[in-house]
What does this fold into?
Amino acid sequence: MTDATFPPAAEAEARPVRFRGGGFRPSSPRWVGALVFVVLIAFLEWGTRAGFISNLTMPRPSDVFATLVDLARSGMLWTHLVPSLTRLLVGGAIGAFVGIAVGVMIGLFSVVRAGLVPLVAALFPIPKIALLPLFVIWFGIDEASKYALIAFGTFTPTVVATYGAVDNVDRTLIRMGQSFSLSWSTIVLRIVLPGAMPGILSGLRVSLAIAIILLVAAEMLGAEYGIGAYILQAGSLYDLERLFAGVAILSLLGVLMSGTIGVIEKRLLGWRA
Amino acid sequence: MDLRLESISHRYDDVEVLRDISLDIPAGRIVCIVGPSGCGKSTLLRFIGGLERPTEGQVVQIGAPPADSINPLTYVFQDFALLPWRSVEGNISLILSDHGIRGRKAESIIADVLARTKLSEFRKAWPRQLSGGMKQRVAIARALAVNPAVLLMDEPLSALDSQTRELLMDDLIALWTRQPFTAVYVTHNLAEAVRLGHRIVVLSRRPGAVNEIVEIDMPLADRDLANPELDAKQKHLWHLMRAEAEAADKELVHD
Ligand SMILES: Nc1ncnc2c1ncn2[C@@H]1O[C@H](COP(=O)(O)OP(=O)(O)O)[C@@H](O)[C@H]1O
Ligand SMILES: [Mg+2]
It folds into this structure.
């Protein structure tokens, strides 16, 4: 006796199996991002020229561009950009560095974890800009208080991202390091840190965007030069061209920053590919 | 260097995992540990290599390891444990350099172990580019690079498909035949145990205790699965394990 088989379904209709896979795997061809910008700007330009967007509600993109060119020609662009970039770099670097260091410590030592995790949770939701007056009292009205504000604002999200990333490092890899009698520092530097790097870098993306927001806020509250001060002046005069020129610079700064992290990711995380 | 386990017992909180295990691991032999899943084989192996401490008993080392042994007790893990951000070569060089071996000396060790595991062409490859069997060969190469006195292997072939397993088994036998090493080999696969083990320790279900120790004297190179003596041993092992495995399977439901 043979095993029973089903009779062949000769008469039944044959059709291809419905495709249900695919998706959930975004890739990002560069030109699409650029296209979105171009289309948006072209639309605004066309709308303001055709007149269905009033000049009072939206400045014409070409005028904003002309304002930017003027700004660059007169040299005022650098007068505003240099202090802003310095604040961003100094404050952001301090915040990111201390944040990564503290985050790694929280990830590695029970005492530090027990002591600092609640503190960080308490600090995280404070709107940092509300503390600017405090920082002015502590660090003076000059640059130091702005550095402190930006550093503090980058610090908290970086800490949270970093210790989460350290927690997620594959324990079997650490066990492997110990089983080969690797030194503690080698395990931390060559196993824990590289393993946490993807999480740390994606945390930095968020932290640095927050740094830009705080930069502008700090400059609006008290600075002679800086992109924030420039926007504030333009805003108080309802000079929309200059306001938008300032905002465009900020956006560019954000894109630049995110691009830089992208380059770092490519170099450091090439192994993921 | 020999190892001796002296009445090892262990509990995780209120779960008794191992009960009074005493065992000798003589130099130059392969000791296989088999037992139903969850009986504490991996835990026992972690004690042997000093990655964890038992609640009672101890593992003692008899005699000094060879002077040229960089890391006397060396593991090969089931899931390979390769660093994905380092190339094949980088995974090995990291360990050598941490033990102060760099430059030309490291170079020659790496070339030698990669040749022994037939990986010379894949020196620069990333782990993600390798198949499972190749990854485990890299892990074995890495273990050989530190010239271990005892190799501790926790189901090294379990993550691989059966053809790859067969090939790697032959590789292990060839490595041992060329230069006998001491090994503790944990597996749940009885065929692997009779191919590779000089001494097969059968553990009971949790709490794991030594149920029986089966010795096989036949040289590794002569063993093939068609051999009636090996077949009988394997049947005997299966007979021992079967009841335990069935009982263990039922217990898990009640836990
Ligand atoms: N770190 C741990 N904490 C608590 N229980 C554990 C731990 N490791 C293993 N166990 C338990 O100990 C028992 C033995 O585990 P293990 O040694 O991995 O078994 P095997 O390798 O034989 O399958 C299991 O019941 C497991 O749940
Ligand atoms: Mg196990």
